[in-house]
Sequence to fold (293 residues):
Amino acid sequence: MSGTDVKAFLAQSASVVHACLTAELEEFPKVSIVEAMAYALQGGKGIRGFLVMEGAALHGLPREAGAYAAAAVEALHAYSLVHDDLPAMDDDDLRRGRPTTHRKWDEATAILAGDALQSLCFGLLAHEHCAADPAIRAVLVAGMAEAAGARGMVYGQALDIAAETAEAPLTLDQITELQAGKTGALISWSGWAGPTLAAADPTRMRHYADALGLAFQIADDVLDVEGDAAAVGKAVGKDADAGKATFVSLLGLDGAKARARDLVTDACDALTPYGDKAERLRALAQYVIERDR
Fold:
């Protein structure tokens, strides 16, 4: 399966997610904060939402059965990017090839839009259309709270900020821990959410997603060195300019690429019992380390 095929099925799932999010935002007041929410939700690869829907399909549900949970994680991810781009955080002017939300509007609007996107995530997960069984909805909500909070994504972000002023660069183990939170936690949640919706064992999908998330971040570090800003859609070279320790700075470019390939192998090995049904997920794992953005 080619990279073009992967982009096509990512686009298919993203269209379902976008339709769900658009319908939800139609119910909100027509104010600038909601416009900023919609703006922040545009673009992106849609990998997290795809993982939810594909994981559901892999365990016998229609892909659309995962739409609300997929929309929820994409809303949470969009909130994290809006806040991560703020001057007090990464201070970025470009995201997904467009001005960041605080540049398009202002910092206050961006902060509030991010807050609202986070709330939207939990509202979608709690909705009866997410899962008929309230116990499953509760598991998804609790898991998202864990993945997004001070033991997951926010924890990783805090470690990242602290590293900027640390006396010594982070070690490989410390960077791995940081990225397991900052990037990996939401990808891990997305991996086990699909089988959870189907009331199936999420262990293998969790293993797959954990390896995928780390491979994704290593690929991002490689793109920060080799990538073209126009293709990536955001500034590149910032980590090196800031003197931050990354997988590339610690392992070297070739070493980082080799580690990413090993992780893709680990991810695909976790899918072995699913046979040909998991071909899209295997292709996604390969795409993650070969992408140009």
Observations:
- The two ends are 19 Å apart (CA to CA).
- The chain is about 70% helix and 0% strand.
- The chain has a mean pLDDT of 94.
